[in-house]
Amino acid sequence: MSVPNSVETQIKAVSRGLDSRTREGRETRVSTISQSYPTTVEDLWEACTSAERLPRWFAPVSGELRPGGTYQVEGNAGGTVESCEAPRSFTATWEYGDDVSWIAVRVAPDGDGARLTLEHTAYADTTAEFWERFGPGATGVGWDLALMGLERHLTTGSDGPPEVDGWERTDEGRRFITASSARWAEASVEAGTPPSQAGAARDRTTAFYLGEAPEGA
Questions:
Q1: pLDDT tens, 126-161?
Q2: SUPFAM superfamilies, alphabetically (predicted)?
Q3: For the whole prediction, is pTM greater than 0.85?
């Protein structure tokens, strides 16, 4: 097995982007995160869709992982699988409380490995206040943590980042969260957000993930 990436290497290995689109005539914000892994398309697909492997790097997922089936991520969102073209792509709703957004996952060959690309789409009008306060890092840091867990799972065969209380206060955890939040702020500026607004949102998001501020701060 390979040696897992360091925090700094993992942060640099991930591509992040933001853009605006329309869905059913309404403006949406789309956050995109992508990473290449030293494995095959088939193995990467299985890691992302197998109920047995998902808990090893992401979280337990219950339900029917097929088109039209519903699913629930333990302690997180649930939804409906809208489409699936194994081993290349799937789409699903991402529902948390009263909020509904969408995810699209693609797996493709990338040189000697395989690349995972995830798009997370949300309506701009229903998330405007939250976005202004926390920016794309509010969900982006969470996806970064997932991709780091996947990298460690695929390179070592073990479980991903420590899923224990207090990991965010370790040196590794603080460095990772702070760097991820900063990269999402940079992506926000590139997408047109004023630097001062993006920086303030970055600081709030970082503090939240580090357990230094309440969610609504």
A1: 999 999 999 999 999 999 999 999 999 999 887 766
A2: Bet v1-like
A3: yes
Instruction: Specify the amino acid at residue 179.
Output: A
For residue 87, whether the previous peptide bond is cis, meaning omega lies within 30 degrees of 0, is yes
Q: Which CATH class is domain 7-209?
A: alpha beta
Instruction: Kindly provide the residue ranges of all beta strands, DSSP E only, lying in the chain, ordered along the sequence.
Output: 15-23, 26-37, 61-63, 70-73, 78-85, 89-96, 99-110, 113-123
Q: What is the pLDDT of residues 101-135, one digit of tens each?
A: 999 999 999 999 999 999 999 999 999 999 999 99
- Using CA atoms, how far residue 88 sits from 20, 94, 117, 159, 214, in Å, is 24, 19, 10, 24, 39
203 three-class SS: helix
